[in-house]
Each structure stands twice: as C-alpha cells, then as structure tokens.
Amino acid sequence: MKKREHMDHKRKRRQEKVRRPKHHERARWTQTQKQEAEPPEYDEDVEIASGPSPPLRLRYTSERMHRAMGRLARAQKIETDEDYRQFMNSLIGQDLDAMVNSLEDDPIEEAQELAFQAMEAEGPREALALAQQALALDPDCVDALSVAAGMTARSLKEVIPKMQQAVEAGERALGEDFFEENRGHFWGITETRPYMRARVALAQLLQRIGHTDEAVRHYEGMLELNPGDNQGVRDTLLGCYLVMDDLEGAQRLLQQYKDDFSAVFIWGEVLQRFLGGEIKKATKSLKKARERNPYVEDYLSGNKQRPRNLPDHYSPGEKSEAIYCAQELGPAWESHPEAVAWLNAER
Questions:
Q1: Helix/strand/coil (H, E, C) string of the chain?
Q2: I want to staple 137 with a disulfide (CB 3.0 to 4.6 A). Which of 107, 161, 273, 300 is the partner?
Q3: For the ranges 97-106, 139-148, 233-242, 318-327, which has the lowest average pLDDT?
Q4: pTM of this structure
Q5: Per-residue pLDDT averaged across 54-79, rounded?
C-alpha cells in the first residue's frame, strides 16, 4: 500500500511539472489578449479571460534564443542532425547576440523581434507602434498582426476577423507542406509558436461569443498538430464538448489523455458519465474526484462563486487547481442543472 501511495505521489508531481508551464502559457496569452482587446471606449466587452502573467522580460527569452540559434545554424547550411548537435554544442558560452548581429539583415526576424517587444510593451500605444513597425517589415508577422488586431478593433466583431487574418498569415508563412511534414510535433518547432498563439486566441474569442462549435474545430486542430498540448488546450476542449453535449467527443478526449490526473479531467469524467446515464460509473468517478481535489465541488455545485481571476499557478489537489478547474468546467455544469442537483444530492 505504501508503495502505491508513493507511486501516486510521484505521478502527481510529474503532472504538476507538466501542467504548470501549460498554465503559465495560457495565463500569459489570455492576459495579453485581454490587454490587446481593450482599447478605450469599447462598445462591448471583449475580455476573454483574466489571469496573471509572468514578468514581461521573461516571456519570450527561450523562444528568442531558439530563433537565434536557428538563424545561426541556417547560416552555416547545416543539414544533418549530428552536425546540428555539434553546432549547438559549439555555441555554449558564446555571445549569441554578437553572432546574430554579424549575420545579414533578415526582415522577417527583425519583424518578429519587434513583435516580441510589442507583446512585452507596458502600454497599448507603444505596443501598437511596435506592431506596425514589424508589419512594415513583414506583413505576415503573426504576432504583430495579433497585437494590432486587439489595438485597432473597436468591438468584438472586429477583433475576430482580424485574428482570423493573423491565423491565415501564419498558415501562408508556414505553408501546406510544412503542416503535413510536421503534424504531431508542431510546438517543438519554434517558428510555429506565433501561429499557435494566434489560433488559440481566435478559438477563445469564438468561444466567448458562443460559437463553440467553431472554437472546438480550432482546439481539435491544435491537438492534432501538437498532441503534447503545451498550451493546455485539452482542458478547454473538454469543457466545450460537455457544454455541447458531445459525449462521444468528451469520451474520446478522456481516452486520448487517459494518463491525465488533473482535477479537470476527473471532474469532467464525472459529468460525462452522468450525462451518459452511467450513474454508477459517475458515482465511482465522483469518489475519485473528491479524493483528487475536494475543493472543486463547491464551485461546480453552485455553493461557492467562481473567482474572476486565475491564480499565478496551481498545484494538484489544492484550492488553486480547483479555481482553474472551475473556470474550465463551470459553464458545462451550469448548463446541466440536473447534474448539479445530483451532485448536491450526493453530498
């Protein structure tokens, strides 16, 4: 028994390590999108979600570094994996900035750097100015288009088509062949990340206005491109399936990520089984859900109001995770009052 408890503890710790970065990425982007999508005198509320973000200076450090190393490798015309590994090792301790500055000017990379600065800008005017400079160099700079979309649109109806344009620009820049060749491990290629950021933002906007079916297609597409789900898309997708009463989709997702031990997935399983008429299985899952995170129940049962803001991070089994879980699954439970009544009756 002690061995099993030890293994469960190790599994939870692994889960925390995986999911914390996902949460930070989601929180960072939703907060950035919130800032981008709120120019003065909006004629309707366009806030997608609210949540804290990491320090501005830390947001894109790793991505910048990988892009710089990629430029240097391309300049050396490296072709084999072994040569690439040797070249990467040779960069250790080197001044990457100086090496990159010695390369020929690259308008696309210069535009991306301006876009990074725009996303890190402290104010909307500075952000928009930097985004416009980036677009002057590269009209298909996805991150710059995303920033400009939020800064120039006057309503939610205007933001969505502009974000759609950003996604389409990413598709053009990467190309059809790239999608086919790299499907399944997209996030591991640094150049895909602006596109993936724009697409998740578009999906969130569509979900916000009630176009859940369109949002679901984007979430499903992102999981196809990146099954590892570095952006935490599967949590939101599960909630969408349950809102739509797509129990087959929910079951498929639960099976695809059957090793996911998060509160979102176990509490989602409870609702999926209840709605499917599998009351005994739902009761069994409810017992597991309460053991995994007992704080979630108060939010889903309506006995406690969901906080407006997400915590900086969350840990398995804690109240912070319960808040995150409630945000993802709360609308699904609220749309099924019979499930809420059952949950309260099971107390």
A1: CHHHHHHHHHHHHHHHHHHHHHHHHHHHHHHHHHHHCCCCCCCCCCCCCCCCCCCHHHCCHHHHHHHHHHHHHHHCCCCCHHHHHHHHHHCCCCCHHHHHHCCCCCHHHHHHHHHHHHHHCCCHHHHHHHHHHHHHHCCCCHHHHHHHHHHHCCCHHHHHHHHHHHHHHHHHHHCHHHHHHHCCCCCCCHHHHHHHHHHHHHHHHHHHCCCHHHHHHHHHHHHHHCCCCCCCHHHHHHHHHHHCCCHHHHHHHHHHCCCCCCHHHHHHHHHHHHHCCCHHHHHHHHHHHHHHCCCHHHHHCCCCCCCCCCCCCCCCCCHHHHHHHHHHHHHHHHCCHHHHHHHHHCC
A2: 107
A3: 97-106
A4: 0.79
A5: 71
